Amino acid sequence: MLLHLIYKKRVKENRAFALDIKERVKDKLCKHVTKIQRMPTELSSLPVIDVSALLNSNSNDNEQQEVALQIHQACRQWGFFYVQNHGVPLELQEKLLDLSRRFFSQSEETKMQISMSKGGRAWRGYFPVGNELTSGKPDGKEGLYFGTEIEDVNHPKVRDRIPLHGRNQFPSVNDDSIEFRQVILSYMNAIEHLGRVIMSGLARSLKLDTNFFDKNYFRDEPTCLFRIFNYPAAFCQQKGNENLWGVGEHTDYGMLTILLQDDIGGLQVKTSQGEWIQAPPISNTFVCNIGDMLDRMTAGYYRSTPHRVKNLSTTVDRLSFPFFLDPHWDAEVLPIPLDGVTTTSDDAEQRWDKASVHTFQGTYGDYLLKKVSKVFPDLAQEQIVIGPNSY
Ligand SMILES: O=C(O)CCC(=O)C(=O)O
Question: What is the reported pTM?
């Protein structure tokens, strides 16, 4: 009898627990729906492209051509797409997420031990919330900047004190930076490889040789920048921050961005009709978007697309990991003659920054330096004062 009563009590408790969970899920879904309804276009508008045929040496020409076609449609319509079956191990992504979460949960004092101001001309390391600007306004995010690891002090770019080249400042978690270093370098390697593969499909989508970008723009040393961002929960809801963003509207500077995001969401993409749509997290995919240099090369045929971020969660921070695969520092980016393509006129007036991507003269390095200097004005000022070869 006693056992029976205990059993009945347990059943009742379990039922109450299940109802509570159901209510919570319903509540969460309602909130989610309200959020989506505020966005004018559907949630799943951006295409998801299976890129396995580009990675697999056994795939045939038709299969590769089919991927190129999908890339073409995505670049013409959106400037954004997801990639799946990309070959980057899930375990590596999870390790990166876990270590990053642990890094950002440390005290400001600990994180500032590798502040960007200590990274010298390489401009690598940690920056706290509010230190990076977009269109002159502080972003609601903190982050870590990395680039290609150059240990050799005789590397020509390091010897000539060219900014954005050199060694990284690797973060540590519980005083151990070795594991994090290995994970970051492995991840960067894997994504650079994936990026070059996607660019081979993108070359094909423009009826160019598949190694066109490798040969002419990346060469032996593409400019690779990697960032880890943490968008604190509720930042944009705090008093005084109502008009701020995690990252304000912008386009990316280079060729191809490959983004890993956690499951919080908040990335928004501007359509050609000027509407904002969401790029929600999709498990084991990367979000890719084209940058200003591809816009410039294709004379606007593939446009760089504005995007922005707001972490709408009031309780959970958002992590994201953009990797920028850009032309060689010394490459001069010129329009590519494209077979059968009529290009559009300059769109500077409609652009978020009113700046033309088509008229500047110089190398990609010149372009990038000007842009990064605007994002970190204090650091740029410091470097100009310090460096004998400053720009
Ligand atoms: O955090 C994100 O989702 C996007 C970051 C971004 O837009 C950028 O770094 O250019």
Answer: 0.86
